[in-house]
Predict the structure.
Amino acid sequence: MRKDRNRFFKDIKLQKEPIRESVSTEDTILARNPILQQFINNFSNHSDLSVTEFPHLTVKIYYFSYLINKDHYEQFLSNIRTITLDELPPFLNHSEFKRLSNFDSIEEAILSGSGILFTEKRAYELPFKEGSGRSIAPSETETVILGAHDSFVESIDVNLSLIRKRVLSSQLKTIKLHVGNKAKRTVYLLYIEGEASEKDIEEIKKRILSIKNDAIVDTNMLVQFIDEHPNSPFPQFYTTERPDVIAYKLFDGKVAGLMDNSPFAFCTPVSFFDFMESMDDFGQRWIVSTFIKVTRYIAILVTLLFTALYVAVTTYHYEMIPQALLPTLLVSRSKVPFPPVIEALFLEFLLELLREAGARLPTKVGQTIGIVGGIVIGQAAVQAGITSNILIIVVAASAIASFVVPNYLLSTSIRIVRFGFIIISGFWGNLGIIFGMGILIIHLSSLTNLNSPYLLPISPMFPKFFKYSLIRGSFKKKAERG
Amino acid sequence: MQMKERLSPFQASILMYLTQSGVTLFSLPRFVAEAFGTNGWIGLIIVYFIVNINLVLIWLVYKVSKGKSMLEIIDIFPKWMTLPFNLIIAGVWMLLGVMIMVKFCMILKVLFYNNVSLIYLLTMVYILTYLLLKKDLYQIAKSTVVLFYFTIWTVFLLAFHLPEFSFIRLTPFIFKGDTDMLTGGISIYTALLGYELSILYIHMIEKKQLKSIIAGNTITSIIYLGVTFVSFGFFSFDQLLKEMYPVVTLLGYISFPVLERVENFTFTIFGLKVLMTTVMYLWGTKELVQYQFKRIKPNFLVIGILIIGFTVSFIPKVIKDVDYWITYISYAATVIAFLLPILLLLTILSSKILKWKAANE
Amino acid sequence: MNKFILIIFIFLVTGCAEQRIIDDLALINAVGYDLSDNEKNPLKLTVTFPIITKDGKYDRKTIMVEGKTSKEAREKVRFKTNYKLESGQVRVSLFGQELAKEGLLPNLHSLVRDPSLGTRVKLALAENEASDILMLQIKNEGQNATYLEQFLSKLNRENFRTNYNIYQYLRDYYDDGIDPILPVFKVEKNNIAYNGIGLFHEDKLIEILKPSEASYLFLFREEMKQGVFVEQIDVGEEEQASIMLNYELKNHHIEVPSTPNKPKEASIYIELIGDIVEYTGKEDVSEPKIQRKIEAIITKKIKMEGKKLIIKLQKLQVDPIGINRYVRNKMSYNQWKSLDQYKSYQDMNINIETKVFINSTGKWK
C-alpha cells in the first residue's frame, strides 16, 4: 500500500521532459571545476534553472529565478559588476557568502533559494533567499485568549527565529537533520542542554534518520513515521503551531522538532495530559485554570460516554431512568421507529458529516451548512419522528464537549473512539461500556511516547507532578520548590 | 524474566490491593455476620493482622535471600524436583483466578443479564485478560493504577448510606448469635487472598518493600472494613443474614437525580477489580510454568493458559458448584500462602549452611 | 494476533444482551396487592403502567387480575397487554388492609427477591382495597403511581417519616427491637388522601392510627428533626384557642436504666424549640409570661397525649418507637435472648419527659 503511494508521488516529481541543454557552453577554465561538473550533470534537465555569466571574472551564477528574492539579486549584480578580477577573492571572502565544498550542500542551497556562484575552483552560496512567504498570523487551530498570538509559518528560518526570540539562552541547541532519500527535507531538533535527556535526543535522531520515505510533506506526517504505536487512534507526538508552547516545552526538558515548509512543530516525550493543556491555562489564575482543566476531563468523559449511555439506558437499562425523566423520554421515543443505537449512530454520523463539510468548505459557505444542518437536525428530524429530541440534546452535548478538548488531533481521535462505545453499548449496554472502558484503559496505559509512558503522572504514578499536569498548581509554590 | 523497569512502592500497593479485592466483597458483610455474629466487623481487624504476619514472612524471604526472587531461590533444586510443587501451585492459582471470574460472571448473569449466555461474558473477560497478560508485570501494573483510579471512587458511594446508618442498630453485643468462627473465619481470610502473589514480585519493588505490601493489604482491609461496618449499621442483623449480596443492595440503594439504580453500572465496574485478581493469579501461573518450561514462547503459554482456563470455566454449572470449588481451592491457596514462604526460608537457610550451588547452571 | 482478537470481537458482536427498548415496554410503576373472595385465586393483583396514546399523549393503563401468588398473577397480566411487562420502574407498592392483616412477608419476599426491582420501592397501605386506589382516575392527575410517590416524599419532607421503602420495612422487621409502620391511604371524594399510620406487629397489621395520633408518634421517633404542632389549648379563662408551632427537635433520646433482670421503666426525653406561626387567642403571645404559660400547657399536652398513645401501643404490643432497641442495648446477649420482649414491653412503665421552648412569635408581636 505504502509502496504504491510512494511510486505515485515519485511519478509526479520526475516529470520526464525532453532533454534540453539549458546550461550554456562551458568555459574551458570553469570546466575544470569538478564540483561544477557534478552540478551540471545532476541538474542536466532542469529547464527552469537560470544562469548568469561574468566572463571577465570567470564566474557563473546558477539560481532558480522564482525561488530567489529579486532585490537581493539585483543588489548583488550591481556589486559584482563593479569589481575586477583581482578584487574577486576578497569580495567572496565577505562573510555573507558561504563556501560550499560538496555537491550535497550545493544542491540543498540552490533548492532552498540561494544562488550558487562557481569560480574556477570553488563554489559559493549567494544569499538570495526569499525572506518570508506567508506573514506571521494568529493560529487557526489553536486559538487562545490570553497569550501570544503569533504562530509558525512555512519558513523554517522564521520559525526558528520565533523560538529563539523566546528562549534567550545559549543552551538552546539545534541539530540539523535530513529526511528522505532523494528529496531531502530539513528537520531541526531543538533542545535545551541540561534540561533534555541525552537519551531522548539520540533516540529521536536515530528514528528520524531511519526514515526512508521521500513523500513526507508535513510535521504531522513526519511524526507518524517515528511513533511507536502506529495502530493506535491516539496522537502520540504533540504537534503545535504555537511557538510559545514549544518554548515552554523546551524549558520543560522536552525535545522539539521543526520541519521546513511546515507550520507545525512537534515535541516529545509527551503524555496524554499534555494534549489537554492550552496556553490559556497559564494566563489564568491557578484556581480558575484548575477548574477549566477539570472541566476538560469531564468533557472527555461526556464525549466518550454520553451518547453510549443514552443508548445503553434506553435499550437495556430502563430502570436507571428517574421518575421525572420517564414521561419526557417515553413520549419522545414513542414516535421513533428505529432502535436507539441506529437512531444515535444516524445522528452522530450526520453531525460528523456536518463537521467535515464545515471544515472543507470556504468559510462563507460553511455558515450555510451550519444553518441547514441546524434546521435539519434540530427541527425536521424530530418532527419527522426519526430521532427523539432527548437524543439531540445528548448528541449536541457530546459534540460540544468534544470541541472543548484543546488539541485538534486528540479531539478527533476521541470522537472516533466514541463511535466504538456507541456500537458496543448498542450490543451489550452498560456491560459493553465498561468492557470498552477496560480496553481503552489497557490500551492507553500501554502506549508510550519515546519510551515514556503515555499516562505519565498517573501511571506510573508521580503524585508530585499531579499539580502541574493534571491540574495547574500555583506558580509561586513551584518557584519556591525550585 | 527480564525487567528493566521496577515497580514503585505505590504501584506495588495498588497491585496488591486490586489482586486482593475480588468477588467475595459482594457477600462479605453476610459472611462476616455468619462467621462472627453481631459486630463481626471487628473480626476483620484480627484477620488483617494475621495477613500482615504472612506478609512479614514473605518479606523475610526477600530480606534473607538478599533480594533474590522466588524463582532464583528455587533454582538450587533440579527442575524435576520443583516440577510437581510448581505445577500444583500454578494449578491452584489458575483455578482460583478462573473460578473467581466465573463466579462474578454468574452473579452478573443472575442479577442483570438473565438472557446472556455465560460464554459471551467470559469471552469479554478473557479478551481483557489476554490484553493484559501478554505484557510483562510492569505494564500490568501501569494499567492497574489507572483501573484503580477508575474504580476507587465507588468507595465514596458509601457516603450515600450514612443517612440510614444508625449506631443503635450495631448493638452492644460482640460476636454473638450463631457464630461459626473457624470455617467462617477461614472463608473471610480467603477474601483477603491475593497477597501471596507478592512473593513473585516483591524483588521488583524499588524500595520500602515491606511497607508497600502492608500498605496494599491495609487499603483492602480498610475498604472491606468500611463496607462491612456500614452494612452492620445500615441493615439490621437478621436482615444482613438474609441478604444474598448485601453490597449489591447497598449499591442499589444509591440514587442520583439524573440516574437512579446505578447498581448495574457500578457492579460492572467492580468487574474490573475482579478482572485484576484473575489476571494476577494467571500471571503467577504463567511465571511458574514459564520457569519450568523455559522453551515455550511466552505468548503461546498465555494463550495456552487462557484456553485451559476458558475450558475449566464451564465445568461448574451453577453458582453453588462454583462456591464449592472456590471454598476448597481457596483453602489450598491459603495453605500455599503460609507454607510457601516458610519453605523458601528453610531453603535459603539450609543452602547457606550447606553452601548448595544452583543445580541448573 | 490482532486478527485473532478481531475474530473474537466479531463473535462478541453476534451475540447481544436481551433488548428492552423503553418504548416497547410496559413499565409498571405501581402494584397493588389485595385479598380476593375467590377461593382458588386468593390474591388480587393490580398493576398500572404508562402508555403513550396514538396522538402522543402520556396516559396510563391499569390491569387487575386474580391469581394464586404474586408472580403467578403477574404472568396473567402478561396476557393482557401488547407490551413487554417490566417491573424495574415500580415506585409504589400498595397493600390492602385485609391482606396486611394476614402478613406482608410473602409478597415482600417476592418483591425483594426480584433483581429487577430496587430496594427503594415505597410501600403503603390502602384503607380498603389497594385496587380502588390504583383504579381511581383522578381528573388531570395522570399517573396514580407518580401521585402516590410524590405524596409519600412530601409526607417525608413534612416530617411524617412515612418514607418507608422495602429496605426500611425489612430492616425494621428483621430488627428485634423495633416494629415497622406504613402510611395509609384512602379514596376520598375522587381523590387519594393520607389517612394515618398502620402499626405492625412483626409483618401483620394490627391497628391504624388516626393522623392526629400519628403526629404524636412521630414526635417520639428519632428520625424526626422538625415538624408542625397544631393543638387546641386554653391559656386564659376564655374558650379554647388554636395554636400552631413550627418546631425543631433539639434533643431526643430514650433512656432505659440498666437493670439485671427485666427492665421496668423507660424514659423518652424530647426537647422542642418552636416558633409560633398561628395563635387565635386574645393574649399577647410576645409577652414572656404568656409564653411561659403556653410552654407549660404544650408540655403538659404532649405528656398527656403521648402517654395515652404509648399505653395504646403497649396494649397492642407494637413498638414502632423502638424502645426495645434501647432495652436490648442495656442487656447482655443471653439475657436479651431469654427475655419475652413483648411481654416486658407491655409491662414497662414508659415516661415522657418534654421540654418546650418558644423561640419567637414570628413577624408579629
